[in-house]
């Protein structure tokens, strides 16, 4: 075969060496890069041995065996690229990917064994590709390539911008190599016949595919450099000012020179006057604020490019949140928007729950189980309370406690963005580094601040909407309850008449029978009315009736326990005798403690335990009611104090809301700590009188 037909094969081999060197020099530690090196090295091996086999006819069998060895390895390396990319960038459960890779490796080892079997090493006769061993290797090659192509298609389909923008040419180049390899495996007859056109096309297609891979690698790994090295606005403004002033002086100097070279008698004087006037005019113009502003605006419009089109991006943000009607939908859209915009590998959203005062992870772009809520003494509480802008966690000098290290490991947090509107802190969002370990720029920070501020406003509006809905339900109670007052009065009047007549006719059997019918009918009607009220109202208001009294909270708790002695076992008590007095409405708090202890006993069950403790605090009294029940699911903690939110089948959903109102009416605070399988603790803190 003429050497000219083999030039593309040698060019492809050299291109493989160049790409391998570039990857090893720039970034060779990642699993994706290592797999890419294996694919490119195998491609170069196949191309070089194909060319040498066609040049050296005597050792043709050996060169064909070397080519087939590379073709056995190629689909394994190709599949490894896709598997490594998915495991690195999406943190998915790769158990299925792992067993497929191991299966391919096992089949490749078996095919290698067939390749080096004695029948294949025989030097008598030509190399038999159509033997049983050759057909088995051919079948493996086709199946493995299809599996590798499917894996690459999954990578490209799952990727989002800006990651897809960076890797698409790498994936397309690898796909074209695999696709042509499938065609090549079906054209072995042409290869055996040394078809010059096919060999030439093989080299050109491989070389073109390698160019695509190289272009994609440059965009992938060096894309950040083009953004990192840029001209600052001040430098550009100064440079443009110098250029404009320099051009102005050249024009003025040329005009003065023309005047001096004229035949005017006063040419020299006019020339000096023109230069002097031009200098004065330049000083006046340069000292004008309006001219400076226009120049900066001109540079910003035509010379300085921003990373984002803020107008289009803001339209996208507002359109995304247009149909949001709940906190959950706001959180879902916010997570999707941040992932699509900034390309972070890990994004988590944390909300501050009113029930227990802790931050809970409510949304995440990862599939791992969420970490436990951040306790009140966690460093993130102190950090987020004192910050209003984006926090770069990598630049902070923080005492790395085990809890802090666990938080960073589970979230891969690089940035922390508070969700705050006015004085209300809703929570925070964490973002890891962008794909490819790229750093965030000021453009990113500006857009993040705008989006998260908008999200905070949306969360505030959603909560206000929930409060308005609750208020409307309370008003509905007042409207429709009046319709039942007449019926209740009628029923009570009937019972009153029975009670009055019982003194005179109590021993009369006929009266007793009539009285029982009246009582039975009244009870039935009262039950029906109560059921209607339960369904329609689901509501009770907190009355502001009694006045405040200064009491020892232990006495109120003991009164509540005595009232419950006939319906439940007495709880375990751990009460400090000498407590500072508190100013409360005694009857309200007695009912509050009764409700909380009954809830605790219902949660703990017959075999469970309820414990009540009181301890003094600086300027306050702390009461804790704990149970050993199954705990409250984390999904229900966020709405625990909201009215009309209940976990009981026949509950009103206003018990804890009423408790919170009573405690806050006394200037106190209530907090509920609960974890599934570890019981529930209700903490109440009341200021000392």
Globally, the shape reads flat
Which blocks of ≥5 consecutive residues have pLDDT under 50?
Answer: 119-127, 189-193, 222-229, 537-545
Q: Give the biggest sheet.
A: 5 strands, antiparallel
Please report the number of helical segments: 22
Q: Specify the CATH architecture of the largest domain.
A: Up-down Bundle
Q: Determine the fraction of residues in helical runs and give it as a percent range.
A: 55-70%
Number of domains: 4
**Total beta strand runs:** 12
CATH-assigned fold name of the largest domain = Rhopdopsin 7-helix transmembrane proteins
Please indicate the percent range of residues in DSSP E strands (runs of 2 or more): 5-15%
Which tags fit this structure?
about 700 residues; alpha+beta; Rhopdopsin 7-helix transmembrane proteins; 4 domains; five-stranded antiparallel beta sheet; phosphoprotein; EC 2.7.13.3; two-component regulatory system
Could you give a quick summary of the protein structure above?
The protein is α+β, with helices and mostly antiparallel strands and 689 residues long. It contains 22 helices and twelve strands. The protein folds into four domains: 3-228, Rhodopsin 7-helix transmembrane proteins (Rhopdopsin 7-helix transmembrane proteins, Up-down Bundle), CATH 1.20.1070; 233-302; 471-536; 549-687, Histidine kinase-like ATPase, C-terminal domain (Heat Shock Protein 90, 2-Layer Sandwich).
